[in-house]
Write a structure and sequence with these properties.
This protein is α/β, with parallel strands linked by helices. The chain folds into four domains: 131 residues, NusB-like (N-utilizing Substance Protein B Homolog, Chain A); 37 residues, no CATH class; 54 residues, 2-Layer Sandwich (Alpha-Beta Plaits); 208 residues, Rossmann fold (3-Layer(aba) Sandwich), CATH 3.40.50. The chain contains 20 helices and twelve strands. The strands form two sheets. Strands 5, 6, 7, 8, 9, 10, 11 and 12 form an eight-stranded mixed sheet that branches. It has a four-stranded antiparallel sheet with strand order 2-3-1-4. A hairpin with a 6-residue loop joins strand 2 and strand 3. Helix 14 packs parallel to helix 15 and helix 18 packs across helix 19. The protein is globular, with a radius of gyration of 25 Å.
Length: 489
Amino acid sequence: MNAQPDRRPAPTGQQPGGKGGKPGRTPRPHRRPKKDPVRLLAYTALRAVAERDAYANLVLPPLLKKARDGGDFDARDAALATELVYGTLRHQGTYDAIVAACVDRPLREVDPPVLDVLTLGAHQLLGTRIPSHAAVSASVELARVVLGDGRAKFVNAVLRKVAADDLDGWLAKVAPAYDEDPEQHLAVMHSHPRWVVSALWDALGGGSAGMEDLLEADNERPDVTLVARPGRTTADELRAALGEDALPGRWSPYAVRLTEGGEPGAIEAVRDGRAGVQDEGSQLVALALAKAPVEGSDRWWLDGCAGPGGKAAMLAGLASERGAFLLASEKQPHRARLVERSLAGNPGPYQVIAADGTRPPWRPGSFDRVLVDVPCTGLGALRRRPEARWRRRPEDVAGFAPLQRGLLTEALRAVRVGGVVGYATCSPHLAETRTVVDDVLKQHGGAELLDARPYLEGVGMLGDGPDVQLWPHLHGTDAMYLALLRRTA
Protein backbone atom coordinates (compact mmCIF):
# COMPACT_ATOMS: atom_id res chain seq x y z
CA MET A 1 0.00 0.00 0.00
CA ASN A 2 2.90 2.30 0.72
CA ALA A 3 4.56 1.96 -2.69
CA GLN A 4 2.10 2.51 -5.50
CA PRO A 5 2.37 0.33 -8.60
CA ASP A 6 3.92 1.92 -11.66
CA ARG A 7 1.02 2.66 -14.01
CA ARG A 8 3.09 3.69 -17.01
CA PRO A 9 2.83 1.53 -20.16
CA ALA A 10 4.75 -1.73 -19.88
CA PRO A 11 6.38 -3.63 -22.78
CA THR A 12 3.88 -5.80 -24.57
CA GLY A 13 4.11 -9.54 -24.15
CA GLN A 14 2.13 -12.62 -23.11
CA GLN A 15 -0.93 -11.48 -21.20
CA PRO A 16 -3.24 -13.39 -18.87
CA GLY A 17 -6.17 -15.01 -20.61
CA GLY A 18 -4.59 -15.00 -24.09
CA LYS A 19 -5.79 -16.63 -27.30
CA GLY A 20 -6.67 -20.24 -27.47
CA GLY A 21 -9.16 -22.57 -25.86
CA LYS A 22 -9.75 -26.18 -25.01
CA PRO A 23 -9.24 -28.54 -27.96
CA GLY A 24 -12.32 -30.02 -29.49
CA ARG A 25 -14.68 -27.26 -28.36
CA THR A 26 -16.48 -25.28 -31.05
CA PRO A 27 -15.57 -21.60 -30.62
CA ARG A 28 -18.39 -19.17 -30.04
CA PRO A 29 -19.08 -16.61 -32.78
CA HIS A 30 -17.03 -13.48 -32.15
CA ARG A 31 -19.07 -10.58 -30.77
CA ARG A 32 -17.72 -7.10 -31.21
CA PRO A 33 -17.39 -5.25 -27.89
CA LYS A 34 -19.84 -2.48 -27.12
CA LYS A 35 -18.27 0.93 -26.68
CA ASP A 36 -19.56 2.74 -23.60
CA PRO A 37 -18.68 6.43 -24.17
CA VAL A 38 -18.83 7.29 -20.44
CA ARG A 39 -16.43 4.59 -19.27
CA LEU A 40 -14.21 4.98 -22.31
CA LEU A 41 -13.83 8.69 -21.54
CA ALA A 42 -13.09 7.95 -17.87
CA TYR A 43 -10.44 5.41 -18.87
CA THR A 44 -8.90 7.89 -21.33
CA ALA A 45 -8.60 10.49 -18.57
CA LEU A 46 -7.04 7.99 -16.15
CA ARG A 47 -4.51 6.93 -18.77
CA ALA A 48 -3.56 10.57 -19.39
CA VAL A 49 -2.99 11.06 -15.67
CA ALA A 50 -0.81 7.93 -15.49
CA GLU A 51 1.10 8.26 -18.76
CA ARG A 52 1.67 12.00 -19.02
CA ASP A 53 1.60 13.10 -15.37
CA ALA A 54 -1.45 15.14 -16.35
CA TYR A 55 -3.90 16.52 -13.82
CA ALA A 56 -7.50 15.35 -14.01
CA ASN A 57 -8.88 18.87 -13.55
CA LEU A 58 -7.05 19.90 -16.73
CA VAL A 59 -7.60 16.73 -18.77
CA LEU A 60 -11.26 16.09 -18.05
CA PRO A 61 -12.96 19.36 -19.14
CA PRO A 62 -11.81 19.23 -22.80
CA LEU A 63 -12.73 15.54 -23.02
CA LEU A 64 -16.21 16.29 -21.69
CA LYS A 65 -16.61 19.25 -24.04
CA LYS A 66 -15.63 17.14 -27.05
CA ALA A 67 -18.09 14.43 -26.01
CA ARG A 68 -20.91 16.93 -25.52
CA ASP A 69 -20.17 18.67 -28.80
CA GLY A 70 -20.24 15.29 -30.55
CA GLY A 71 -23.70 14.57 -29.22
CA ASP A 72 -22.57 11.52 -27.24
CA PHE A 73 -23.09 12.99 -23.78
CA ASP A 74 -25.80 14.60 -21.75
CA ALA A 75 -25.46 16.16 -18.30
CA ARG A 76 -25.98 12.83 -16.51
CA ASP A 77 -23.26 11.18 -18.60
CA ALA A 78 -20.85 14.01 -17.80
CA ALA A 79 -21.63 13.75 -14.07
CA LEU A 80 -21.04 9.98 -14.09
CA ALA A 81 -17.78 10.29 -16.02
CA THR A 82 -16.55 12.95 -13.59
CA GLU A 83 -17.44 10.79 -10.59
CA LEU A 84 -15.71 7.75 -12.10
CA VAL A 85 -12.48 9.66 -12.74
CA TYR A 86 -12.23 11.54 -9.45
CA GLY A 87 -13.59 8.70 -7.34
CA THR A 88 -11.08 6.25 -8.81
CA LEU A 89 -8.18 8.65 -8.25
CA ARG A 90 -9.20 9.57 -4.71
CA HIS A 91 -9.62 5.97 -3.58
CA GLN A 92 -6.92 4.44 -5.75
CA GLY A 93 -4.78 3.35 -2.79
CA THR A 94 -7.66 1.49 -1.16
CA TYR A 95 -8.67 -0.14 -4.42
CA ASP A 96 -5.09 -1.17 -5.14
CA ALA A 97 -4.95 -2.95 -1.77
CA ILE A 98 -8.21 -4.77 -2.56
CA VAL A 99 -7.22 -5.69 -6.12
CA ALA A 100 -3.86 -6.94 -4.81
CA ALA A 101 -5.75 -9.42 -2.66
CA CYS A 102 -7.57 -10.71 -5.74
CA VAL A 103 -4.64 -11.32 -8.11
CA ASP A 104 -1.93 -13.96 -7.98
CA ARG A 105 1.01 -11.64 -8.58
CA PRO A 106 2.38 -8.33 -7.27
CA LEU A 107 0.51 -5.32 -8.66
CA ARG A 108 3.72 -4.02 -10.22
CA GLU A 109 3.56 -7.02 -12.58
CA VAL A 110 0.07 -6.10 -13.80
CA ASP A 111 0.17 -3.87 -16.88
CA PRO A 112 -0.78 -0.28 -15.96
CA PRO A 113 -3.66 -0.08 -18.49
CA VAL A 114 -5.11 -3.29 -17.05
CA LEU A 115 -4.74 -1.90 -13.53
CA ASP A 116 -6.59 1.26 -14.55
CA VAL A 117 -9.53 -0.79 -15.83
CA LEU A 118 -9.50 -2.84 -12.62
CA THR A 119 -9.49 0.17 -10.27
CA LEU A 120 -12.15 1.87 -12.40
CA GLY A 121 -14.24 -1.27 -12.05
CA ALA A 122 -13.50 -1.51 -8.31
CA HIS A 123 -14.79 2.02 -7.82
CA GLN A 124 -18.04 1.17 -9.59
CA LEU A 125 -18.42 -1.93 -7.41
CA LEU A 126 -17.41 -0.44 -4.06
CA GLY A 127 -17.86 3.32 -4.34
CA THR A 128 -21.06 3.83 -6.34
CA ARG A 129 -24.63 2.55 -6.45
CA ILE A 130 -24.12 0.84 -9.79
CA PRO A 131 -25.37 -2.78 -9.46
CA SER A 132 -22.55 -5.32 -9.23
CA HIS A 133 -23.49 -7.23 -12.37
CA ALA A 134 -23.65 -4.00 -14.38
CA ALA A 135 -20.31 -2.76 -12.99
CA VAL A 136 -18.54 -6.01 -13.87
CA SER A 137 -20.18 -6.29 -17.28
CA ALA A 138 -19.39 -2.68 -18.23
CA SER A 139 -15.77 -3.06 -17.07
CA VAL A 140 -15.29 -6.24 -19.07
CA GLU A 141 -16.72 -4.57 -22.19
CA LEU A 142 -14.35 -1.64 -21.65
CA ALA A 143 -11.46 -4.08 -21.30
CA ARG A 144 -12.44 -5.76 -24.58
CA VAL A 145 -12.39 -2.37 -26.31
CA VAL A 146 -9.10 -1.03 -24.91
CA LEU A 147 -7.18 -4.19 -23.94
CA GLY A 148 -8.48 -7.05 -26.08
CA ASP A 149 -10.46 -10.20 -25.32
CA GLY A 150 -7.60 -12.05 -23.60
CA ARG A 151 -7.00 -9.47 -20.89
CA ALA A 152 -10.75 -8.85 -20.62
CA LYS A 153 -11.05 -12.40 -19.23
CA PHE A 154 -8.49 -11.53 -16.57
CA VAL A 155 -10.42 -8.34 -15.69
CA ASN A 156 -13.63 -10.39 -15.45
CA ALA A 157 -12.07 -12.93 -13.09
CA VAL A 158 -10.55 -10.31 -10.79
CA LEU A 159 -13.64 -8.09 -10.59
CA ARG A 160 -15.86 -11.06 -9.78
CA LYS A 161 -13.64 -11.66 -6.75
CA VAL A 162 -13.87 -7.95 -5.82
CA ALA A 163 -17.67 -8.13 -6.11
CA ALA A 164 -17.81 -10.93 -3.54
CA ASP A 165 -17.74 -8.41 -0.66
CA ASP A 166 -18.63 -4.78 0.02
CA LEU A 167 -16.17 -2.01 0.89
CA ASP A 168 -16.43 -2.44 4.66
CA GLY A 169 -15.85 -6.16 4.34
CA TRP A 170 -12.78 -5.64 2.19
CA LEU A 171 -11.33 -2.99 4.49
CA ALA A 172 -11.62 -5.39 7.40
CA LYS A 173 -9.51 -7.83 5.39
CA VAL A 174 -6.82 -5.59 3.86
CA ALA A 175 -6.26 -2.82 6.43
CA PRO A 176 -4.09 -3.62 9.45
CA ALA A 177 -5.62 -3.05 12.88
CA TYR A 178 -5.25 0.50 14.19
CA ASP A 179 -3.59 -0.70 17.39
CA GLU A 180 -0.97 -2.63 15.42
CA ASP A 181 -0.06 0.06 12.88
CA PRO A 182 -2.11 3.27 13.11
CA GLU A 183 -0.50 5.06 10.16
CA GLN A 184 -0.88 2.14 7.76
CA HIS A 185 -4.43 1.55 9.01
CA LEU A 186 -5.38 5.13 8.14
CA ALA A 187 -3.46 4.95 4.86
CA VAL A 188 -5.48 1.97 3.62
CA MET A 189 -8.81 3.04 5.11
CA HIS A 190 -8.62 6.56 3.66
CA SER A 191 -6.48 6.04 0.55
CA HIS A 192 -3.42 8.15 1.31
CA PRO A 193 0.24 7.11 1.06
CA ARG A 194 1.63 6.30 4.47
CA TRP A 195 4.22 9.08 4.36
CA VAL A 196 1.49 11.63 3.65
CA VAL A 197 -0.55 10.35 6.60
CA SER A 198 2.52 10.73 8.81
CA ALA A 199 3.25 14.27 7.59
CA LEU A 200 -0.37 15.42 7.99
CA TRP A 201 -0.53 13.94 11.47
CA ASP A 202 2.61 15.81 12.52
CA ALA A 203 1.17 19.07 11.22
CA LEU A 204 -2.31 18.58 12.67
CA GLY A 205 -1.34 17.11 16.03
CA GLY A 206 -3.89 15.56 18.35
CA GLY A 207 -5.51 12.14 18.23
CA SER A 208 -6.90 9.91 15.53
CA ALA A 209 -10.36 11.52 15.37
CA GLY A 210 -9.08 14.75 13.84
CA MET A 211 -6.86 12.81 11.45
CA GLU A 212 -9.75 10.71 10.20
CA ASP A 213 -11.84 13.84 9.68
CA LEU A 214 -9.00 15.41 7.69
CA LEU A 215 -8.40 12.34 5.52
CA GLU A 216 -12.13 11.97 4.88
CA ALA A 217 -12.31 15.65 3.86
CA ASP A 218 -9.46 15.06 1.39
CA ASN A 219 -11.66 12.46 -0.30
CA GLU A 220 -14.74 14.66 -0.61
CA ARG A 221 -15.56 16.73 -3.66
CA PRO A 222 -14.91 20.39 -2.77
CA ASP A 223 -17.26 23.26 -3.46
CA VAL A 224 -16.61 25.33 -6.55
CA THR A 225 -15.87 28.76 -5.08
CA LEU A 226 -15.80 32.02 -6.99
CA VAL A 227 -14.15 35.28 -6.05
CA ALA A 228 -15.77 38.62 -6.81
CA ARG A 229 -12.69 40.59 -7.80
CA PRO A 230 -12.42 43.88 -5.86
CA GLY A 231 -13.13 46.94 -7.93
CA ARG A 232 -14.84 44.93 -10.69
CA THR A 233 -17.86 43.36 -8.99
CA THR A 234 -19.13 42.38 -5.54
CA ALA A 235 -20.24 39.11 -3.99
CA ASP A 236 -23.78 40.49 -3.69
CA GLU A 237 -23.88 41.32 -7.40
CA LEU A 238 -22.52 37.90 -8.26
CA ARG A 239 -25.07 36.07 -6.11
CA ALA A 240 -27.88 38.20 -7.50
CA ALA A 241 -26.89 37.23 -11.04
CA LEU A 242 -26.64 33.54 -10.16
CA GLY A 243 -29.79 33.30 -8.05
CA GLU A 244 -30.37 29.86 -6.52
CA ASP A 245 -27.14 28.56 -8.04
CA ALA A 246 -25.03 30.47 -5.49
CA LEU A 247 -24.40 30.62 -1.75
CA PRO A 248 -22.34 33.09 0.32
CA GLY A 249 -18.77 32.17 1.18
CA ARG A 250 -17.99 30.90 4.66
CA TRP A 251 -15.26 33.40 5.53
CA SER A 252 -14.25 35.72 2.71
CA PRO A 253 -16.55 38.68 1.92
CA TYR A 254 -15.58 38.22 -1.75
CA ALA A 255 -16.46 34.51 -1.94
CA VAL A 256 -19.46 32.91 -3.61
CA ARG A 257 -20.01 29.15 -3.56
CA LEU A 258 -21.74 27.45 -6.45
CA THR A 259 -24.43 24.92 -5.65
CA GLU A 260 -24.13 21.44 -7.13
CA GLY A 261 -24.20 21.49 -10.88
CA GLY A 262 -22.90 25.04 -11.28
CA GLU A 263 -20.66 25.55 -14.30
CA PRO A 264 -18.13 28.40 -13.81
CA GLY A 265 -17.31 28.73 -17.50
CA ALA A 266 -20.94 29.55 -18.29
CA ILE A 267 -21.04 32.54 -15.90
CA GLU A 268 -20.76 35.90 -17.64
CA ALA A 269 -18.75 37.51 -14.80
CA VAL A 270 -16.18 34.70 -15.00
CA ARG A 271 -15.94 34.93 -18.78
CA ASP A 272 -15.25 38.68 -18.73
CA GLY A 273 -12.84 38.54 -15.76
CA ARG A 274 -14.89 40.33 -13.13
CA ALA A 275 -14.93 37.07 -11.14
CA GLY A 276 -12.77 33.97 -11.06
CA VAL A 277 -12.58 30.50 -9.60
CA GLN A 278 -10.56 30.69 -6.37
CA ASP A 279 -10.57 28.60 -3.21
CA GLU A 280 -11.61 30.56 -0.15
CA GLY A 281 -8.34 29.74 1.61
CA SER A 282 -6.44 31.41 -1.20
CA GLN A 283 -8.66 34.48 -0.88
CA LEU A 284 -8.04 34.66 2.87
CA VAL A 285 -4.26 34.66 2.38
CA ALA A 286 -4.41 37.68 0.07
CA LEU A 287 -6.87 39.48 2.33
CA ALA A 288 -4.72 38.93 5.44
CA LEU A 289 -1.66 40.40 3.76
CA ALA A 290 -3.69 43.42 2.67
CA LYS A 291 -5.11 43.94 6.20
CA ALA A 292 -1.84 43.65 8.12
CA PRO A 293 -0.67 47.13 9.21
CA VAL A 294 2.50 48.62 7.74
CA GLU A 295 4.49 51.48 9.17
CA GLY A 296 4.59 54.50 6.90
CA SER A 297 3.60 54.56 3.22
CA ASP A 298 1.48 51.89 1.56
CA ARG A 299 1.93 52.52 -2.17
CA TRP A 300 3.99 49.66 -3.62
CA TRP A 301 2.88 46.01 -3.52
CA LEU A 302 4.58 42.92 -4.94
CA ASP A 303 3.29 39.43 -5.71
CA GLY A 304 6.56 37.57 -6.14
CA CYS A 305 5.11 34.20 -7.26
CA ALA A 306 2.05 35.42 -9.11
CA GLY A 307 1.14 32.53 -11.41
CA PRO A 308 -1.49 31.58 -12.37
CA GLY A 309 -2.95 34.87 -11.13
CA GLY A 310 -5.75 34.31 -8.60
CA LYS A 311 -4.11 36.02 -5.62
CA ALA A 312 -2.53 38.64 -7.88
CA ALA A 313 -5.96 39.62 -9.24
CA MET A 314 -7.34 40.02 -5.73
CA LEU A 315 -4.30 41.99 -4.57
CA ALA A 316 -4.46 44.22 -7.64
CA GLY A 317 -8.08 45.08 -6.88
CA LEU A 318 -7.39 45.75 -3.20
CA ALA A 319 -4.32 47.84 -4.07
CA SER A 320 -6.26 49.94 -6.58
CA GLU A 321 -8.84 50.80 -3.91
CA ARG A 322 -6.01 52.38 -1.88
CA GLY A 323 -4.25 54.02 -4.80
CA ALA A 324 -1.38 51.52 -4.62
CA PHE A 325 0.55 49.86 -7.45
CA LEU A 326 0.96 46.08 -7.80
CA LEU A 327 3.91 44.43 -9.50
CA ALA A 328 3.06 40.80 -10.31
CA SER A 329 6.14 38.70 -11.03
CA GLU A 330 6.14 35.13 -12.33
CA LYS A 331 9.20 33.16 -13.43
CA GLN A 332 7.58 31.09 -16.20
CA PRO A 333 6.54 33.21 -19.23
CA HIS A 334 3.48 31.08 -20.01
CA ARG A 335 2.26 31.46 -16.43
CA ALA A 336 3.00 35.20 -16.58
CA ARG A 337 0.59 35.35 -19.52
CA LEU A 338 -2.07 33.69 -17.34
CA VAL A 339 -1.46 36.40 -14.74
CA GLU A 340 -1.91 39.09 -17.39
CA ARG A 341 -5.21 37.51 -18.37
CA SER A 342 -6.40 37.47 -14.73
CA LEU A 343 -5.45 41.12 -14.16
CA ALA A 344 -6.82 42.45 -17.45
CA GLY A 345 -9.50 45.01 -16.65
CA ASN A 346 -8.23 45.84 -13.16
CA PRO A 347 -9.17 49.47 -12.47
CA GLY A 348 -5.89 50.43 -10.80
CA PRO A 349 -2.24 50.50 -11.90
CA TYR A 350 -0.31 47.24 -12.15
CA GLN A 351 2.43 45.56 -14.15
CA VAL A 352 3.12 41.89 -14.93
CA ILE A 353 6.68 40.72 -15.54
CA ALA A 354 8.44 37.37 -16.07
CA ALA A 355 11.23 37.30 -13.48
CA ASP A 356 12.92 34.86 -11.12
CA GLY A 357 12.02 35.74 -7.53
CA THR A 358 15.30 34.29 -6.26
CA ARG A 359 17.24 36.65 -8.59
CA PRO A 360 14.93 39.65 -8.69
CA PRO A 361 15.36 42.70 -10.92
CA TRP A 362 13.96 45.12 -8.33
CA ARG A 363 16.01 47.01 -5.76
CA PRO A 364 16.03 45.90 -2.11
CA GLY A 365 13.55 47.74 0.09
CA SER A 366 11.31 48.78 -2.82
CA PHE A 367 7.96 47.52 -1.55
CA ASP A 368 5.55 48.08 1.32
CA ARG A 369 3.81 44.69 1.00
CA VAL A 370 5.12 41.46 -0.53
CA LEU A 371 3.40 38.12 -1.04
CA VAL A 372 5.28 34.92 -1.91
CA ASP A 373 2.98 31.93 -2.45
CA VAL A 374 5.85 29.50 -2.97
CA PRO A 375 5.93 26.31 -5.07
CA CYS A 376 5.36 23.24 -2.90
CA THR A 377 4.19 19.63 -2.87
CA GLY A 378 0.54 20.70 -3.02
CA LEU A 379 -0.50 18.37 -0.18
CA GLY A 380 -3.02 20.98 0.91
CA ALA A 381 -5.05 20.64 -2.29
CA LEU A 382 -5.56 16.87 -2.43
CA ARG A 383 -9.34 17.39 -2.66
CA ARG A 384 -8.88 19.12 -6.01
CA ARG A 385 -5.89 17.18 -7.30
CA PRO A 386 -6.25 13.69 -5.83
CA GLU A 387 -3.62 12.24 -8.15
CA ALA A 388 -0.94 14.39 -6.47
CA ARG A 389 -0.94 12.12 -3.43
CA TRP A 390 0.28 9.20 -5.57
CA ARG A 391 2.65 11.29 -7.65
CA ARG A 392 4.54 13.00 -4.87
CA ARG A 393 7.37 11.33 -2.95
CA PRO A 394 8.96 12.21 0.43
CA GLU A 395 12.10 13.40 -1.33
CA ASP A 396 10.05 16.07 -3.15
CA VAL A 397 9.72 17.96 0.14
CA ALA A 398 13.48 18.33 0.42
CA GLY A 399 13.66 19.25 -3.26
CA PHE A 400 11.45 22.31 -2.77
CA ALA A 401 13.27 23.50 0.36
CA PRO A 402 16.05 25.60 -1.23
CA LEU A 403 13.59 27.38 -3.52
CA GLN A 404 11.16 28.13 -0.68
CA ARG A 405 13.91 29.54 1.51
CA GLY A 406 15.36 31.53 -1.36
CA LEU A 407 12.03 33.11 -2.25
CA LEU A 408 11.26 34.08 1.34
CA THR A 409 14.76 35.49 1.84
CA GLU A 410 14.45 37.67 -1.27
CA ALA A 411 10.94 38.75 -0.25
CA LEU A 412 12.34 40.07 3.04
CA ARG A 413 15.04 41.94 1.11
CA ALA A 414 12.42 43.38 -1.25
CA VAL A 415 10.29 44.90 1.51
CA ARG A 416 11.30 48.12 3.25
CA VAL A 417 11.71 48.50 7.00
CA GLY A 418 8.22 48.61 8.51
CA GLY A 419 6.72 46.71 5.57
CA VAL A 420 5.10 43.26 5.67
CA VAL A 421 5.81 39.97 3.87
CA GLY A 422 3.28 37.15 3.55
CA TYR A 423 4.74 33.65 3.14
CA ALA A 424 2.08 31.28 1.87
CA THR A 425 1.98 27.74 0.58
CA CYS A 426 -0.68 25.17 -0.24
CA SER A 427 0.87 22.49 1.94
CA PRO A 428 0.55 21.77 5.65
CA HIS A 429 3.83 19.83 5.74
CA LEU A 430 5.90 21.32 8.55
CA ALA A 431 9.06 21.17 6.44
CA GLU A 432 7.37 23.52 3.93
CA THR A 433 5.77 25.84 6.45
CA ARG A 434 7.07 26.63 9.95
CA THR A 435 10.50 25.12 9.38
CA VAL A 436 11.11 27.38 6.37
CA VAL A 437 9.94 30.49 8.22
CA ASP A 438 11.96 29.69 11.34
CA ASP A 439 15.14 28.99 9.36
CA VAL A 440 14.91 32.20 7.32
CA LEU A 441 14.17 34.30 10.38
CA LYS A 442 17.26 32.92 12.12
CA GLN A 443 19.43 33.67 9.10
CA HIS A 444 17.92 37.05 8.23
CA GLY A 445 17.86 38.61 11.67
CA GLY A 446 16.05 41.78 10.60
CA ALA A 447 12.44 40.61 10.73
CA GLU A 448 9.80 39.55 13.23
CA LEU A 449 6.84 37.19 13.00
CA LEU A 450 3.43 38.85 13.34
CA ASP A 451 0.29 37.20 14.68
CA ALA A 452 -1.69 36.53 11.49
CA ARG A 453 -4.91 35.45 13.20
CA PRO A 454 -6.47 38.91 13.70
CA TYR A 455 -6.29 39.50 9.94
CA LEU A 456 -8.43 36.45 9.17
CA GLU A 457 -11.43 38.12 10.72
CA GLY A 458 -14.23 35.78 11.76
CA VAL A 459 -12.31 32.58 10.99
CA GLY A 460 -12.26 30.25 13.97
CA MET A 461 -10.10 27.28 15.01
CA LEU A 462 -6.82 28.91 13.97
CA GLY A 463 -4.70 27.42 16.74
CA ASP A 464 -2.17 29.19 18.92
CA GLY A 465 -0.56 31.30 16.18
CA PRO A 466 1.28 33.40 15.31
CA ASP A 467 1.13 31.69 11.91
CA VAL A 468 -2.07 30.22 10.47
CA GLN A 469 -2.83 26.79 9.04
CA LEU A 470 -6.22 26.31 7.37
CA TRP A 471 -7.71 22.81 7.06
CA PRO A 472 -10.35 21.22 4.78
CA HIS A 473 -12.19 19.51 7.66
CA LEU A 474 -12.18 22.59 9.93
CA HIS A 475 -12.55 25.49 7.50
CA GLY A 476 -13.85 23.94 4.27
CA THR A 477 -10.82 25.32 2.40
CA ASP A 478 -7.64 23.93 0.96
CA ALA A 479 -4.93 23.47 3.59
CA MET A 480 -3.32 26.87 3.02
CA TYR A 481 -0.55 28.10 5.30
CA LEU A 482 0.27 31.75 6.03
CA ALA A 483 2.97 33.50 8.04
CA LEU A 484 3.20 37.30 8.21
CA LEU A 485 6.61 38.88 8.80
CA ARG A 486 7.53 42.52 9.37
CA ARG A 487 10.91 43.89 8.30
CA THR A 488 12.52 45.51 11.34
CA ALA A 489 16.06 46.38 10.25
